[in-house]
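Standup notes
- DV: blocked on the single-chain target, sequence here:
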Amino acid sequence: MAGVKRQAGRATSAPVKTPPAAPLTVSRKELLTGASDTDFRRLVHGLLPFLAIHTSIRDGYASVLGLAGPQYTILLCIRTLHPAGPVSVKMLADHLRLSGSFITAETNALERKGLVVKARGATDRRMVELSLTSAGAGLLDSIAELRQQVNDVQFGCLSREEFRQLVPLVERLIASGERALALLQYLRADQAVDDK
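- DV (later): unblocked, structure below
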């Protein structure tokens, strides 16, 4: 037992080596501060909790209405997209970056609840058009004041100018994120072939 204590003592008195600097996670000058990627990592690490918080808020709204989070989002998107023309399953899937089969399953559930109506397209009978029923619209309207209060607090840190800059920036980040995901999938598949 004494030998164990002596060994432990010797281990703790040994000098701690400084770990080598981690490789940069980006190489573009625009994303570096000096020669450091610290600010880039701050951004990436900040996006994850922001998404988690925003998803929790969305799920909270949905819970008040007796819906699952994705169902609530689908109702909102149908309402948002509808003024521009008929909303199809494909359009909704593309807008939300979700699979068509998932959107079909969730809109079927919303149709059974009497919140969504599906109809064949007027010009293309193969297309299924989605719209809210009066009950669906009324359900969303029932928490309008709640949403205003919460959204005003969540985004209350932004000035008008910051908000106007943020919206197109987020849209551009989504587009470049999709390209990055496609690249990652390609490189992983290529790596898997090389490993064989």
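- Follow-up: Residues 1-9 have pLDDT under 50 and may be disordered.
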